[in-house]
TrEMBL record:
Protein's name in the database: Phosphate ABC transporter ATP-binding protein
Signal peptide: none
SMART domains the record matches: AAA (SM00382)
ABC transporter domain residues: 8-256
GO CC terms: membrane
GO biological processes: phosphate ion transmembrane transport
Species annotation: Amazonocrinis nigriterrae CENA67
Keyword list, A-Z: ATP-binding, Cell inner membrane, Cell membrane, Membrane, Nucleotide-binding, Phosphate transport, Translocase, Transport
Any one GO MF annotation of this record: phosphate transmembrane transporter activity
Keyword field contains Acetylation: no
Superkingdom of this protein's organism: Bacteria
Membrane-crossing residue ranges in chain numbering: none
Amino acid sequence: MNKLIPAIRVKNLNFYYNTQKVLEGVSMDIYQSKVTAIIGPSGCGKSTFLKCLNRMIELEGEVKIEGKVEFFNQNIYERRINLNRLRRQVSMILSKPNLFPMSIYDNVAYGVKIVGWRPKVELDEIVEFAIKDADLWDEVKNKLHKSALELSGGQQQRLCIARALAVKPKVLLMDEPCFGLDAIASMKVETLIQSLRLRSELTMVIISHNLQQVTRVSDFTAFFYSNENRVGQMVEFGVTKKIFTNPLDSRTRDYVLARRS
Ligand SMILES: Nc1ncnc2c1ncn2[C@@H]1O[C@H](COP(=O)(O)OP(=O)(O)OP(=O)(O)O)[C@@H](O)[C@H]1O
């Protein structure tokens, strides 16, 4: 394996909703250009953790964060961080597609326009490239000005990915991106993740309950689990193949085996 460079370093992260502690002592590196999967039982704090990586968690209300999250060596919880810039560079794909009620074209152009004015030809090109990057071009090229909400669930999810790609993020956080999709739509999203993994500098973090999918798409896996006080911890992190064939911790082994059988 080539030298691994951390895009994000999480150092001793504790997280609270109000006074309720949800995550404790999470430390891990998320490597550049790799896919890291987060797995674990429901309620162990996977989504919460993901939202801490671009400060989306602060939209959840009264929250407290201790520890550090460094994005290319800068602590994102420092006061002077530009949140809009951070969330463009560390972009989030939710389990339910969250498109705007506007055209396919405008959805993808939206974030690009916020960053700054561009001539129409340039914008057209960015939109086309992003939709091609999201493996959706052939399906939508003749209806770019139709409502994005008329697309199927799987197409909407790939359009969300196109919208994120249009502003050239460094990291893509995906929270169960295939949730609720049928097998074919789910496979298309998975194929897209595979193709982004092969040909780009993009770093991806994906939460999935589908462990078969995790073994197919990820390079590294982190296993989260709630302790006896129902506080989430990262129990084990490693190369995906090792986590699934020879984990160190019995809790990881039990979870991986139970969900495979
Ligand atoms: N906005 C919120 N306010 C208060 N508590 C919350 C909030 N969101 C989540 N929680 C609680 O935090 C804990 C962790 O939730 P989280 O959604 O991060 O877990 P998860 O591992 O992603 O679960 P799942 O696999 O079911 O999506 C749970 O006990 C949950 O009830």
